[in-house]
Design a protein that fits this description.
This protein has one domain: CNF1/YfiH-like putative cysteine hydrolases (4-Layer Sandwich). The protein is globular, with a radius of gyration of 17 Å. The longest helix has 13 residues. Helix content is 18%, strand content 27%. By secondary structure, it is an alpha+beta fold. A seven-stranded mixed β-sheet has the order 1-2-16-8-4-3-6, with no helix packed on it. The chain has a six-stranded mixed β-sheet with strand order 5-7-10-9-11-15. A three-stranded antiparallel β-sheet has the order 12-14-13. It is built from five helices and 16 strands. It binds zinc ion (ZN). Zinc ion binds next to loops.
């Protein structure tokens, strides 16, 4: 899977599977079709869309049968996994990390919203495990793309983040540069990268986009930069229909 910041949905030349990490603008018009926590009818290029009420949890929603329109009973969650074609899985982020995954052999995809809380809680290994246990995916065949998020350059954290990181993530020294006054710079993408490799995904199948959402005002919204939610980027992945 290519990890590409796209100005529209695109088809990867590596794996013929449409997926995108959106910017401020895009994918244009898609937002109008989305209702959080529901499965909705999309535009012709994306027949159905599933999105979540994201709550910084480690909850994974599995859709393993033909979609039913309307509210999902478990729509408060932070990861979506499906084997159903024509269903676009969407996650929204402003500084958190969007992560997309696919096992092209068995035909299962996942989309994850990972902030520090979900990351430390293990939402990435949990989503990978769901692909394996519920759909027969093989970690040797999974491809993972880690999208644009706040970078190490801009992500200063303090005790409310550092303490759970120390207690919940044994390898914290590899992702946190402690500074003064009990603060530190957190490399959230690196944390997710480590967890993905630790889950058994071959390194050559893990892509990451080094864009920092706070630095790149031209491309992205950033909660940290703007001090409030001005907007979110959408990222998505869809299995083709027959
Ligand atoms: Zn930055």
């Amino acid at each position: 899977m290519d990890a590409v910041v796209s100005h529209d949905g695109f088809t990867s030349e590596v794996i013929p599977l449409r997926h995108f990490f959106g910017t401020r603008q895009v994918p244009s018009g898609l937002e109008a079709f989305i209702r959080l926590g529901e499965v909705t009818v999309g535009p012709p290029s994306f027949p159905f869309i599933a999105s979540l009420k994201q709550i910084h949890s480690t909850r994974v929603v599995v859709i393993d049968s033909p979609v039913t329109l309307g509210a999902m009973s478990d729509g408060e969650a932070d990861a979506l996994v499906t084997n159903q074609p024509n269903l676009l899985l969407v996650v929204r982020t402003a500084d958190c990390v969007p992560v997309l995954m696919v096992d092209p052999k068995v035909g299962v995809i996942g989309a994850v919203h990972a902030g520090w809380r979900g990351a430390v809680g293990g939402i990435i290994p949990r989503t990978i495990q769901t692909c394996v246990e519920q759909f027969g995916a093989d970690v040797a065949n999974l491809h993972v793309a880690i999208g644009p998020s706040i970078g190490l350059c801009c992500y200063e954290v303090d005790a409310p983040v550092i303490e759970p990181l120390h207690s919940g993530y044994p390898d914290w020294q590899g992702v946190l540069q402690e500074t003064s006054n009990g603060k530190g710079m957190l490399d959230l993408k690196q944390l997710l990268w480590h967890q993905t490799l630790s889950s058994g995904i071959p390194e050559g199948q893990v892509e990451r986009l080094e864009y920092c959402t706070r630095c790149r005002e031209d491309l992205f919204f950033s909660y940290r930069r703007e001090g409030k939610v001005m907007g979110t980027m959408m990222s998505g992945i869809i299995l083709p229909g027959d």
